[in-house]
Design goal:
Lipocalin; elongated; about 40% strand; alpha+beta; eight-stranded antiparallel β-barrel; single chain; 1 helix
Length: about 190
């Protein structure tokens, strides 16, 4: 009987030590997998940044916004495929559409304005942050556009500053090449 108890105690102690070794190994594997995942994310973000920078410089981009910041600082989360700033060479479109029952002038709950861009400048600082400025002039818009894209990612912010009033609007989202964008353009004026 004593031999059986001693044998069971040794078996339990051995199993516990094995489980602890496996748990430590699992923890080390978790850390390794986490580091590999983070490295992959950074690589993908850098690739998105490079594509966005090329698109900005080629004047073939869309900033797809998922957040709107109003003049008073209040924010609203919006759908990125209907809230955007688009540039196709010298043509530019600014569209905002909110999830409301009222269709708005563009038919999708907001405003869509087309214009011709001019005076575009793009600068990259030492850290890799990109600043892009241009003017948009059209029937329904006369504004200055300021885009800031942050280093190592295609995350960006665009401020739309109208020339004839102080109804400044800021959109936050991601810059994507025009051919990769899936925006839906409403009726423009």
């Amino acid at each position: 009987m004593k031999k059986l108890i001693v044998l069971l105690a040794l078996l339990v102690a051995g199993t516990g030590a094995t489980l602890m070794a496996q748990e430590k190994k699992t923890e080390a594997q978790k850390q390794q997998e986490k580091a590999a995942k983070k490295a992959l994310e950074q690589k993908e973000e850098m690739a998105a940044y490079q594509l966005a920078l090329k698109a900005l410089q080629a004047k073939q981009f869309v900033l797809e916004a998922d957040q709107v910041v109003f003049r008073d600082g209040s924010m609203a989360y919006v759908t990125s495929n209907v809230n955007f700033v688009l540039m196709n060479n010298d043509k530019s479109t600014v569209q905002v559409a909110f999830n409301t029952a009222h269709p708005g002038p563009n038919g999708i709950g907001g405003v869509t304005v087309d214009g011709t861009q001019s005076g575009m400048t793009t600068e990259v600082d030492k850290k890799g942050n990109v600043t892009c400025r241009f003017n948009v002039q059209g029937i329904g818009i006369s504004a200055q556009i300021f885009i800031t894209m942050y280093a190592d990612d295609n995350q960006a912010s665009v401020t739309i500053s109208p020339n004839f009033n102080n109804l400044t609007l800021t959109l936050n989202g991601r810059i994507v090449p025009l051919e990769e964008s899936n925006v839906f353009k409403g009726r423009s004026w």
